[in-house]
Amino acid sequence: MTAAALGALALVCAVGAWRFTTARWTYRAPRTAILLWQAVGITWGLATTGALLAYALQPYERGVLGGLGAFAASAATGGYGPRDAYDLPHILAFIAGVSLLAVLITVTAAAAVQTIRARRRHRALLALISRDDPDVPGVRVVDHPGAAAYCLPGLRSQVVVSAGALRLLSPDELAAVLAHESAHVRERHDLVLLPFSALRRVLPWSAVVRDTQAMVELLIEMAADDRARRFCSPRRLATALLRFGTAEPVPTPHGALGAIGGSHTGVMLRVERLVTPGPALPRRIRALALTLAVSLAVSAPLLWLLPH
Question: Transmembrane segments in this chain: where (predicted)?
Answer without folding.
Answer: 35-57, 88-113, 287-306
